[in-house]
């Protein structure tokens, strides 16, 4: 239950002001644990402030960079024998033009997220002009077709405490999930544990995006933060107990229904705005079934106000979209996105030299 809140500076525009706001909240409410929900965790970890670092449920800044950088993550994963698509670093358009023209490629920012600025290059098609330079590098990943999955896990100083996996079935933009159906996938869990073992003692939340083919299981992205998989525990106290050290079970997975089925959750506004290009009747009926059979992450009979306020909030968000000339998915994360500035880029370049 939320008992108090505090207005702080947006970390994207004023990271120092945001850090100071968090420190004030720590002192005001005697906060014992800081749990990042998005990339504001990068600002907190980069601050190197002892008062924040000792309470921050996240890895050190250097580990965050290694996982968040698509280039460094791909090199690391390949180096320890984990599956990743073929990849190349692009520091200019000349690097893009040198890619194998007979293959499909996903060209995206090294420090990007979701579908933002992702370019799908196809054989025989023209190459778009992309704003690439030494300070804004891109990575080219071979485009892999297969079944898509996501994982969400929490590690407590190297020990896996929370784990889930779910297929990508319904999205708002081809990437951002709005429907969550837990599944058991042993290979995904093994992949997550092998990655964490290499980073021991990993501490914090981590989400991976997978593509599975008949021959391989590869990751196409890594998010060292909270991801949508957290919704699989919506309406339960288990994650809060893990994060505060009050749950002693070895590893918790998403709860099951009273009938023993895997839990299903949805974001109803997102399900109503689902991506439905070239939809068939069968696909439409499947979407409708998921919409009416899953439980909304917000709806709660004992607290109706958040659900009743959702239409008004959505109207306000669309107004902000027009003001800022952003799409709705981009707006949701706009103020929390971490984009390395000149000083951070210099530290990253020095860090990359130590990794090579």
TrEMBL record:
Q: Where is the ATP-grasp fold PylC-type domain?
A: 69-228
Q: Name one GO molecular function term.
A: ATP binding
Q: Which InterPro entries match?
A: ATP-grasp_PylC-type
Give the matching SUPFAM superfamilies. Answer: Glutathione synthetase ATP-binding domain-like
What is this protein's name? ATP-grasp fold PylC-type domain-containing protein
Organism annotation: Aspergillus turcosus
